[in-house]
Amino acid sequence: MTLLNPRISRVLGVAALLSLIALAVFGLFVAPPDAVQSDAQRLMYLHVPSAWIAYLAFGVTALSSALYLWRRTRSPVWDRLAGASAELGVLFTAMTLIMGSLWGRPVWGVWWAWDARLVTTAVLFFLYVGYLALRRVPAPLETRAKRCAIAALVAFVDVPIVHFSVDWWQTLHQQATVFTPTLDAHIHGVMALTLWLGVLAFTLLYVYLLDKRYRLEALEEDLEAKELAKAIEERVQGAGITAPPEHVEVGVGQ
Amino acid sequence: MKFAQYVIGGYSLAAAVFLLYWLRLGARIRRAERLDRET
User: Fold this and answer.
1) Based on the structure, what is the number of domains in chain A?
2) Most buried pick, A36, A81, A238, A239, via CB within 10 A?
3) DSSP category for residue A38
4) Does the CB of B23 have a partner CB in chain A at under 8 Å?
5) Does residue A222 lie within any of the structural domains?
6) pTM
7) B7, B13, B18 ranked by CB distance to A205: nearest
8) Are A33 and B2 a contacting pair at CB < 8 A?
9) Which residues pair with A38 in a beta bridge?
10) Cβ neighbours of residue B14 under 8 Å, at least 6 residues apart?
11) Nearest to A53 by CA among A87, A88, A22, A82
């Protein structure tokens, strides 16, 4: 009921922890302060990888949902994977919003601005919170999986809107630094290294947590099925007990 | 460090959020495993 071999999962967990520690050391002490933003820019090593991993998580949810909806590949595995990845996407989107807000206060002078990038990201967060709520609505497994898969694909429409919002509208949020049309990022060597270290650390953390969250999803599904079977069995047995009272008394006496 | 309260606050908050999520996930898995065995 897991995605990965337990040993691989353990190794992945240790690798994620070590890379997160390395990210903290590089982000706080090794990378130089920015010429304009000074040390506040250090928050970018958390904000940018969080946003990219949130895109990845929602991408996995959308792809898994599409594979569930397609009859040829339909399997409960895709539904579980979609649910597990969506929760992690919400976690990383929340992290993106919090780190962005902490960076915005010293650099922009405000915690929040009604800016296209910020608003579309907040919408993305609430869309997937809604998706997670939809997964909690009681229904037969297949019905729930189908409607959640459709909801996930609809919600994913916001991901490219978030990404291109800085090009489509005039925003306070800066335009893309790395994923430019020409892909020629002008970032100081150690700063770029720290940014990619952040991406690596968050990717490892995402895969590690995805494996754990998938296991929980499978266990909860299994438990739900067992509880349903038990309830049906009790109901059937209960129906059998409705015999005349004297019958029961004789039975008890014996 | 300039803006230290934001930077250190941000890194600490991120560490706390991920740690809490990981601990809660572990607790949820253990609870589900226990219920699964009992059912």
Assistant:
1) 1
2) A81
3) B
4) no
5) no
6) 0.90
7) B18
8) yes
9) A34
10) A46, A95, A98, A99
11) A88
